[in-house]
Design goal:
With 253 residues, this protein is mainly α. It is built from nine helices and four strands; from the N terminus they run ααααββαααααββ. α3 crosses α4 and α5 runs antiparallel to α6. The chain starts with 13 loop residues before the first helix and ends in a 9-residue tail after the last strand.
């Protein structure tokens, strides 16, 4: 049976609120329409690509009329960033919702889910330059004849890792990017496990306190993320999934 990830944060996510305003819906209508769209894509746009479907078809898939209603619905989805126009017409962050199921479905033919993943998370190409020793035989009649006449070509620039922010934290993108830049300036970076821990810890902070917590931690030159004194729990600590872990709110790995 096919399934798709559904996060509770969708109820109050800014993107949901934007679509509600654009369509004049309440939260129940909006969440239901989004899930109907995703369920339909499971069968008819497994890779998230909507270029083969027009606005009328997409609207009817969720129980709406065609024509002006369809145009309004699709444009509302694009404006709220539930759909992308660039680099092509598709479900925004489809791999985040459906990737886990695709890995299982195509476990015996991984090239299929690799293709879909790479559409949303482009692979990083690593170039290795190997310098071989010179095989030039010295010419004893000419001094320094073995020295290279041309300089070696410069090494290609190091390709930076692209960090994908989970869709449920998209509303905190600016603060999170600021935190990642702050860590980069300190010569530190997150690997896969460290990022997973960082996302869990940020989710543990009430949404209305995340920006202040990150700003405070950078201003105080902290190694981790801590709320300002007098936060929602009245103490300078964060309680995550495993309880209070002093000094290790945002881990590096």
């Amino acid at each position: 049976m096919a399934w798709i990830a559904s996060h509770k944060e969708i109820l109050s996510h800014p993107k949901t609120l934007d679509l509600m305003e654009a369509m004049g819906w309440d939260v129940d209508q909006c969440v239901a329409k989004l899930h109907r769209l995703w369920w339909w894509c499971v069968d008819y746009a497994e890779d998230g690509d909507l270029r083969k479907h027009n606005d009328d078809r997409i609207a009817r898939a969720v129980g709406l009329n065609g024509g002006n209603d369809a145009t309004r619905f699709v444009e509302g989805l694009v404006t709220a960033r539930w759909l992308d126009r660039e680099p092509y017409f598709r479900i925004h962050d489809w791999w985040e919702y459906y990737g886990h199921f695709l890995r299982g479905k195509y476990s015996k033919t991984p090239e299929k889910w690799h293709r879909i993943r790479d559409l949303y998370i482009p692979p990083v190409n690593h170039t290795v330059t190997i310098r071989l020793p010179s095989t030039t035989v010295p010419n004893r009649t000419e001094p320094n004849s073995t020295e290279p006449k041309d300089k070696e070509p410069p090494l290609p620039p190091k390709q930076e890792k692209v960090i994908k922010i989970p869709f449920d934290l998209d509303g905190d993108r600016e603060s999170i990017m600021g935190w990642l830049e702050y860590k980069r300036e300190k010569g530190q970076s997150y690997k896969t496990k460290g990022l997973e821990s960082l996302w869990r810890m940020i989710r543990a902070i009430p949404p209305n306190e995340r920006k202040a917590s990150i700003d405070n931690s950078m201003a105080c030159n902290y190694a981790g993320i801590f709320p300002p004194k007098g936060g929602s729990n009245g103490k300078n600590r964060i309680v995550g999934e495993a309880g209070y872990i002093p000094g290790k709110y945002a881990h590096l790995s």
